[in-house]
Amino acid sequence: MPTPRVAGKLLLAGMALGGVVAGHAVAYLAAIPSPAARHHVLAETGHGYWRVAVVAALGASLFSAGFLALCHARAGARGRARRADISRWLAPRLAAVQLLLFLAAEATERVVAGAPLAHLLHEGLLAWGLLAQLVVALLLTLLLGWLARAAALVGRLLAGPLRFARPVRRLPRSVVDEAVARVMFPSSVTARGSSS
Predict the structure, then answer these.
(1) Residue 58 near residue 141 (C-beta atoms within 8 A)
(2) What is the rounded CA–CA span in Å between residue 95 and residue 163?
(3) Model pTM?
(4) What is the rounded CA–CA span in Å between residue 9 and residue 176?
(5) Backbone torsions φ then ψ of 75, nearest 5 degrees
(6) Separation between Cα atoms, residue 26 and residue 133, nearest integer Å
(7) Burial of 64 by CB count in 10 Å (0-12 exposed, 13-18 middle, 19+ buried)?
(8) HSE-up (13 A, CA, CB side) for residue 33
(9) Distance of CA 121 to the CA centre of its chain
(10) How confident is the model over 18-29, as pLDDT tens digits?
């Protein structure tokens, strides 16, 4: 297993790649609602690689989520489940990386395709893109936090011994006999108790 620092970077990279592609798709859907117009803009702005990007992002996200679940399940099994919520460190980093990747991708796509960068501002794509990246980063952070807690719980449950209900403690036979005698023969028990 890699060190926690390397694991954190792997998680961040995989989820940021998935998040930036998801945010990118949301931004284009929101900014250009018409499918025909959106297809035209995507074709003109160098998005020919888009299917490959979606597959790579999906694979990276699933790998990162699985890796996170495995790390937290192992920690839970060892009784060392991380109590700190991962959103404290993941949310700001994920949002920052996604914003930077989105800006870099949009600029690179347009430069390679020979499309003017100013169209980003006129189409409203930049504003929608930045907003979408922030929302997707926050949603991913929430989902990963739930996944981490669930994996730690599963790890604890699988590692610990099965706990059955505690058996009912039996009273000593003399106490049971005494109670039965009091119910069945109240006068003899009182007489015996008073004679002693």
Answers:
(1) no
(2) 42
(3) 0.72
(4) 66
(5) -65, -40
(6) 9
(7) buried
(8) 0
(9) 34
(10) 999 999 999 989
Q: Hey, what are 30's tokens?
A: 């929101």
Three-state SS annotation for the chain: CCCHHHHHHHHHHHHHHHHHHHHHHHHHHHHCCCHHHHHHHHHHCCCCCHHHHHHHHHHHHHHHHHHHHHHHHHHHHCCCCCCCCCHHHHHHHHHHHHHHHHHHHHHHHHHHHCCCCCHHHHCCHHHHHHHHHHHHHHHHHHHHHHHHHHHHHHHHHHHCCCCCCCCCCCCCHHHHHHHHHHHHCHHHHHHHHHHC
Give the span between the Cα atoms of 167 and 74, in whole angstroms.
31
- Asked if the model's pLDDT at residue 86 lies above 60, the reply is yes
Domain ranges of the chain: 4-159
